[in-house]
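Example 315.
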Amino acid sequence: MIQTEVLIIGGGPAGSACAWRLKQANVDCLILDQNTFPRFKPCAGWITPDVFKDLASNTEDYPYGLTTFRSFQVSLYSLTFKLPTRQYAIRRYEFDDWLLRRAGAAFQQHKVKSIERSADGYVVDGRFSARYLVGAGGTYCPVYRSIFKADNLKKRQSLIVAQEEEFPYTYTDKRCWLWFFEDRLPGYAWYVPKANGYVNVGVGGKAERLNANGDSLKNHWDRLVEKLDRLEMVRGHDYRPEAHSYYLRQDLTEIRKGNAFLVGDSAGLATIDMGEGISPAIKSGLKAAEAIIKGKRYNLDSISRYSLRSILNPT
Ligand SMILES: Cc1cc2nc3c(=O)[nH]c(=O)nc-3n(C[C@H](O)[C@H](O)[C@H](O)COP(=O)(O)OP(=O)(O)OC[C@H]3O[C@@H](n4cnc5c(N)ncnc54)[C@H](O)[C@@H]3O)c2cc1C
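Predicted structure in complex with flavin-adenine dinucleotide:
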């Protein structure tokens, strides 16, 4: 049996941020993830300045390519306008690997299947035991499933379905485009040019409203591809998009049970207006670590439910 003080299930931004803070306080922890890193994660990779600030880092420390946007190019119904801001774009393949390595925590590739309570904590798959358990496994987190789900169901109306692809492309339009609510999409489509000749395009929206409209995400993806071709933004690419789903912020009734915590997408924390989940994942990971280190209450009320304020007033 491998024993540790804190077992973190999931090495994405939520799990890595939690491990980073625990390691700073010399708390023994182990991250389990079903993948080895670097790993692919469907995501547009747009991040706010808060992300670096929360991790006591800055853009100069970042060893990979990073794009800075001084504005977003927004299309809203019949209006197209420039929204001044300061935001960044990274590639999740690189960013998550950086976060994990920077955390400096022990890591094992392992797909978690079963979790049991023991006299003094938790036992995972009969192989790992810990006093504290952090559920950082994203939308399908096994900690949520086995400890929280029964009396803490996530709301179907907060479920987002999204489809994206990131690929090398010699782009000429260097602006970050966001198209809201086109053709009754209950969400938005994006085009995000990235450093080192990559571009990320995608579409996301509320699953329940798409169904109610008798619509599908695939229709909106096809329209996006057609638009990118018509506007000569991306031409001649053989698309192979990936889909994923996650939950918008909904304030679950329980995010801590005993010494088990939910952080990031496992708790459904993405912002209600933009579906931004990286910053809330990092903030919640840090808060879980603080609760463990200092015996503090675990409370996520101070994590913003909306992105718009930070877009308009980047810190
Ligand atoms: C298409 C798309 C675009 C998005 N764009 C943005 C964006 O531009 N900006 C933004 O802020 N947010 C965006 N998001 C949301 C963002 O990706 C998530 O909110 C964020 O990744 C949450 O981080 P996390 O650490 O909670 O979970 P994840 O990043 O999902 O990490 C969870 C980890 O847990 C591991 N895991 C899962 N199950 C197990 C298991 N059984 N055993 C072991 N390990 C397991 C996984 O392998 C994974 O590495 C987007 C999401 C999608 C789907």
